[in-house]
Amino acid sequence: MNQVYINDAKKHVGEEIKIKGWLFNIRSSGKLMFPEIRDGSGIIQGVVFKNDVSEKVWEDFKNLTQESSVVVTGKVREHPKKPNVYELDVNDVEIVQIAEPYPITPKEHGIDFLMTNRHLWLRSRRQFALMRLRSKIIGFVRNFFDSRDFTLVDTPVLTPAACEGTSTLFEVGYFDNNAYLTQSGQLYNEATAAAFGRVYSFGPTFRAEKSKTRRHLTEFWMVEPEVAYMDLDGVMDLAEEFITEIVQNTLAGCRQELEILERDLSKLEAVKSPFPRISYDEAAEMLKKGFEAGEIEKPFEYGNDFGSPDETYIASQFDRPVMVHRYPAKVKAFYMEPDPADPTKALCVDVLAPEGYGEIIGGGQRMTSHETLLEGIHNHDLPEEAFDWYLDLRKYGTFPHSGFGMGIERCVRWISGIEHIREASPFPRMLYHMKP
Ligand code: 4AD
Ligand code: MG
């Protein structure tokens, strides 16, 4: 008899199957025991009836502790009352190991304890749903670009220069020199966009974020498309189409996960085109009015970047993601194309998720002129020699181009509706957290 994954048990109603997994939980009442078995694909409730099994099987189940590893044999049947739920009429068990007292019990645990035990915490139902969701969302992301004939081009993790400001660089020794962990694959995507037209990268990125927030990790995965001859409007269209498709696919393909997470589906169903597009100036005006109406605590200072409460307020005015474009150039990175209508503004866009989840996408149009780019590099006090190759792109057939970056964990956090980004990563890295 072959092993069957719990997710596939429904295809085996009436048959005897073998499940290889762990004891999630067990209840008993008189001559019945109800072990819940999980195998990574799902959880199934077993029914052990004393009169139907050998003395040994009954005793074995009595001795099982939480997370003991077991191979359970039984017949699949439909739950007598609940539709689409299946049970296992158990007739045999093979114990692989009786687990030592498991630290994570069904009672409530503090977050520090859970984070220290992340390697075990991942076995819980909620974390199962989150990691499955993450895995599926990554599939939707890849499929979005692959199906549109983008070329996946991986960018390096070890880099010679900063992309997103020097304050969050992780420096590492590199033989006799230093290197930095990448903050973004963008600069490389610009080179590959000149070679392959439409490209995307997807990989780990690093920022030495010294603040403790619910949306910053020091290591996160970013997907970054870059398109030759695309302008700011084009990249806003692309981001809108991208987010809409991911949310639609999640709603269609991740029902089980969203149910476990108790996600309010109506909030996701509202995510439809068109997304509102407002300028930084309009957003600033909105914040001013909000402050005057007493809806915001601190006044927003025009010219600054938005803080997290500002983003939350702006996003709260809409039921779907909002795109804020044309920020002051001085609060943005060195490579942004200035707005020809007002060169103090950059042709950039941030996509803010609804419900207070904040920025999920940052992107825009890149500088085409060698001269202004060199100026940008100098103005940001960046070492010119580290960017010589990047400047080359403006010498050999410069071209308008745009792209964006989306942090997968930010996206998972929003779509799953969880409070803190740490649960969107299997092994999150943060200021005070490196283990396991
Ligand atoms: O806005 P950012 O800094 O933009 C860039 O890195 C561009 N070079 C991307 C591009 O145009 N190709 O970061 C992009 C996104 C953010 O919108 C956010 O989703 C995520 O990366 N992000 C983080 N996610 C988790 N933890 C952090 N510390 C993050 N910093 C940025
Ligand atoms: Mg940003």
Structure description:
With 436 residues, the protein is α+β, with helices and mostly antiparallel strands. It folds into 2 domains: 6-97, Nucleic acid-binding proteins (OB fold (Dihydrolipoamide Acetyltransferase, E2P), Beta Barrel); 118-424, BirA Bifunctional Protein, domain 2 (2-Layer Sandwich). Helices cover 30% and strands 27% of the residues. It contains 13 helices and 18 strands. The strands form 4 sheets. It has an 8-stranded mixed sheet, sandwiched between helices. It has a 5-stranded mixed β-barrel with strand order 1-2-3-5-4. Strands 7-9-8 form a 3-stranded antiparallel sheet, with no helix packed on it. α4 packs across α6 and α4 crosses α13 (408-416). The radius of gyration is 26 Å and the shape is elongated. It starts with 15 loop residues before the first strand and ends in a 20-residue tail after the last helix. The site of magnesium ion has 3 residues, from β17.
Short description, anyone?
The chain is α+β, with helices and mostly antiparallel strands and 436 residues long.
